[in-house]
Amino acid sequence: MNYSTAAKAPHQAHFSLDHFNSLIDQIVRWFADNAVEILIALLVAAAIVAVLMSLRSFGIRLCRNDRLGTGWPAIFGQVIARTRLWFIVMLAAEVVMSYTAPPPALAHTIQTLFTIAAALQAALWARELVLGVIDYRAGVDADHQTLGSAMSLIRVLVSVAFFAIALILILDNLGVNVTGLVAGLGIGGIAIGLAAQGIFSDLFAALSIIFDKPFRMGETVSWDQNTGVVEKIGIKSTRFRSVTGEQIIISNSKLLEKELRNRTNLDHIRFTLNFGIVYQTPPELCAQIPDMLAKLTASLNKCQFVRCNMLSFGASSLDYELLFDAMVNTPVDAADVRTAVCLAILERFRDAGIQFAYPTQTTFTAAPDGTMVMPWPTPAGERSAKS
Among 160, 152, 163, 242, which residue's Cα sits nearest to residue 206? Predict the structure, then answer.
């Protein structure tokens, strides 16, 4: 067995050397027979390289001239700036190759190298375009604080996806059967997806936060019975600092399933104020209360009247409801406006002689025979009439 292998080795080396020598002879004859065409092709290739290098320099300048570093001009500039020199050279060689009729072996080599360069360059362009769009949709935020550490994982996933596609295209153009590779990648992707289903669910929820922007870092958000300020948006969870001081951590997918209230960009805060007055208040004065409170709230700073109505006849009061808007955007300022309204109502009702009601109860006493006994002294007029 070893002797047979040793006997074949010189023949294989001789064949490879003959093949290489034959290729060199073909190239030399090609140069000799097509010197003028090759020189023209080299000049054309140099011109193509110069034009593409200038285009790449334009893309770099486009990125530098963008004031904020975002937006579609900056995205396309970043994509163009990622054009590699080896792709430019192979593109120029591929363009001028047909005009020089090179030897088949050399033409095949140039075609193969161009296929590899084109696939890798396309992966680079696609990667920069997708990441640029994500950055653009995330908005101008230093250090990607809108998404936090999720951006690093997104970059890895995008890079792996596009370069895997580029590798499959390269192998397929080189004549390799990629059916098994594609099937293996598909099965592996399904297995990884099932194993990390929760992580990917939260990651896609983080992407939804980027594109839909229900909230940003530093904004105040309410959901269920919780209210907090956004501290960090991570790959799997978002962290809030509640108004009571503790840190609330909730997964991104669970958070987006809830009804969120963003309290940062409020243009007003509406309050409902319920109060009651005593039954001894004259009806004429009761009818004046809505207009009275409308003028009162309109006279206060950062306060807008909505409506005031009598609601019902309560157990011990005539019940009213006042609605007004505090034209501020923070809970602290809104509380100050509400306090000012309450104090103004107290003062105005005092001047008008209107009394607030409080729970009261009247007791009636009956004699053993069922006759009602007055719990207060009988007036003198009634005593004389009875006698």
Answer: 152
